[in-house]
Amino acid sequence: xxxxxxxxxxxxxxxxxxxxxxxxxxxxxxxxxxxxxxxxxxxxxxxxxxxxxxxxxxxxxxxxxxxxxxxxxxxxxxxxxxxxxxxxxxxxxxxxxxxxxxxxxxxxxxxxxxxxxxxxxxxxxxxxxxxxxxxxxxxxxxxxxxxxxxxxxxxxxxxxxxxxxxxxxxxxxxxxxxxxxxxxxxxxxxxxxxxxxxxxxxxxxxxxxxxxxxxxxxxxxxxxxxxxxxxxxxxxxxxxxxxxxxxxxxxxxxxxxxxxxxxxxxxxxxxxxxxxxxxxxxxxxxxxxxx
Amino acid sequence: xxxxxxxxxxxxxxxxxxxxxxxxxxxxxxxxxxxxxxxxxxxxxxxxxxxxxxxxxxxxxxxxxxxxxxxxxxxxxxxxxxxxxxxxxxxxxxxxxxxxxxxxxxxxxxxxxxxxxxxxxxxxxxxxxxxxxxxxxxxxxxxxxxxxxxxxxxxxxxxxxxxxxxxxxxxxxxxxxxxxxxxxxxxxxxxxxxxxxxxxxxxxxxxxxxxxxxxxxxxxxxxxxxxxxxxxxxxxxxxxxxxxxxxxxxxxxx
Amino acid sequence: xxxxxxxxxxxxxxxxxxxxxxxxxxxxxxxxxxxxxxxxxxxxxxxxxxxxxxxxxxxxxxxxxxxxxxxxxxxxxxxxxxxxxxxxxxxxxxxxxxxxxxxxxxxxxxxxxxxxxxxxxxxxxxxxxxxxxxxxxxxxxxxxxxxxxxxxxxxxxxxxxxxxxxxxxxxxxxxxxxxxxxxxxxxxxxxxxxxxxxxxxxxxxxxxxxxxxxxxxxxxxxxxxxxxxxxxxxxxxxxxxxxxxxxxxxxxxxxxxxxxxxxxxxxxxxxxxxxxxxxxxxxxxxxxxxxxxxxxxxxxxxxxxxxxxxxxxxxxxxxxx
Lengths: 291, 254, 321
Prior knowledge:
The complex is a heterotrimer of chains A (291), B (254) and C (321). Chain A is an all-alpha fold and 291 residues long. Chain A contains eleven helices and two strands; from the N terminus they run H-H-H-H-E-E-H-H-H-H-H-H-H. In chain A, a hairpin with a 2-residue loop joins strand 1 (131-133) and strand 2. Chain A is globular. Chain A starts with a helix and ends in a 14-residue tail after the last helix. In chain A, 46% of the residues are buried. Mean pLDDT of chain A is 87; it is low at 283-291. With 254 residues, chain B is an alpha/beta fold. In chain B, helix 7 links the parallel strand 7 (172-176) and strand 8 (204-209). The longest helix of chain B is centred in the middle third of the chain and has 20 residues, at 119-138. With 321 residues, chain C is mostly helical. Chain C has a domain at 22-237. The radius of gyration of chain C is 19 Å and the shape is globular. The model of chain C has no long low-confidence stretch (mean pLDDT 89). The B-C interface holds B 50-52, 71-73, 76-77, 81-82, 84, 88-94, 97, 100-102, 104-105, 107, 109, 111, 114-117, 121, 124-125, 148, 150-151, 164-165, 167-168 and C 169, 172-173, 175-178, 180-181, 183-184, 187-188, 190-199, 205, 209, 251, 311, 313-314, 316, 318-320.
């Protein structure tokens, strides 16, 4: 067990963890804004990948595909929030969970209708032979994962910390009534949260698609994103990022030391342990109320 | 020995001190009032006494048994019941079913008996349903028996809440603002019923109200809370004469 | 009241007489529908009455299916022992899930059930020596006292009798103090506690019961279909089960039956357009949640109300049973 291997694994873990972090972020955003977990998020990722497939198929270079997919995802997010989520916001949680599941179901079914279960490939500039980084070998895609996540997190940090709308969103998350009273249009905030979230999801699809192949099962990733979000207590964006990275590292090291079977157990082992012992996550606050 | 003894009770929520160092005693068979302006900590007191909330410190003794921090359903089984300020009825079910659920504590047949509708289960159901009918009659709710509880006017819902709480046959009943939302006539009737409950069935009542008039008429002893602290305890007459109480409550009529 | 009893008896008589007119294909379809009815009735107790969301219902069905399959093929046990064993195993595992789940609600409950779903799927796939893995398991027909139910009619009647019995059990439970406790926990845990209802324990019981029903259905499914494999018991199936009770009407047994029967028949009706099947399913689920929150039962009630004008009621997803 050399330092080189440990570092190599760390890079690997951080890069896949970055993906989990992005999905986790995409899940926590609408939850903080409107209290809803979008269980269709996995399919949003899939949607992003397939949209990239379509646009690439039209001959567009990947760098041109990226903004178009993000716009498409934004539109999807807007449609979902306005038409499907807004009307049912006051229904019991049961309904909200199932509705988002249904949306995901429909997206996946529509995709399978056209493309069946085949795996497609698409070319992207960041897919290529491993780069040398000192004594380490790094898959350039992994580097892109990590750097993209850093960029996204930095952008969100600036947005929420310094922009007017970002601050409005934070205010709404803390206390919607007060925000409303202060003239913040919380309808726009909800839409914005969903749009950001679907854009993030589609972005993950853009990153993953070229690397792992485009097929309808990509959406299964949502479980990892959920765990990342739970680690962060579902209330903290930073927590979701940290959670995703942590999960990626845990998985990678577990796989390396104990084999593939154990590696697959790590995610739900972590989930079940967290939900049993600290449902509020590593960052959240527990309440005094019982029942 | 008092039926309910609260000693130096403190309840906090995060940074908010809802109740601070409150002590009071309720004798068996008494009608005890708890009064105070909004935010005085009255409901938090009830929540602590019924186990919904774990107090920070202090003791709550019921029938000589320490109940602070004990699980709510256990406290209920000791004989403590309550109604709710905002009613908390089972809105989708009929009034009959609501009150029927109140008898849960007194039915004991098991799951298998329920699943296969054994004799004891069927008998228990028949008997209990009869008791529900009697209770509904006593509260003048028979006409609403089949109505969905969520559709009823607030005042009638409050009556259902009380009937349901009584179904559990408590020794001591906390009534949280029982007449809010009621018309004059309804309130009078409710007060009369409450007095009857205390006299005829020997149920100890602890009534939380911020309607001074109602409480002063009904209660034998009154505890006044203000901002989570005990202000004074005594008979209604003593309270009305107490300067600090009058101050806190300046003309306070609901 | 008597009219209702008469109708039910008539319906049962017709169902019993079905083999006289139906082909083996339709008998098979009816068996699948009845198995789904059992699933729906059980899930309705947990989610419709007790309001607990469960994304792992299919897992308990799988546990029951595999338990029956292994008991009959590996241990050589007769069906009349395998099925009860499956129910008991599923119930125990349901309680095992219900115990940690008792303090969770909404999102976190959904997540832990999702975790359980994944865990069960993992176990079913990664231990092929025991479970046959992704290649699945073949299961013989059920047999009673040594007589294998090879004839389609006998199998159909077997499933029919068990389904009717299960529905009756579900109905009894719903009408009992347990059903009321479930409902109370859903609508107001505070009031329930104040009335002496042990909320956490009640949730556990609901989970265990639901698992028992699902496990029983799974055991029957194994025998009826003759083959089981892990993908059958994944998230897709769980969502389908939820669709049964949502479309039928949350909280209502009649609704669960209607939803299960309709949605079992639907994929068959859409045979011609097989690929659209899933899409249609998704839209039905979504559409029902958005426009018909009280499901078919709610629709029936609305139509009833058109005949007899009443004051407008507040809309919620749950209807009175």
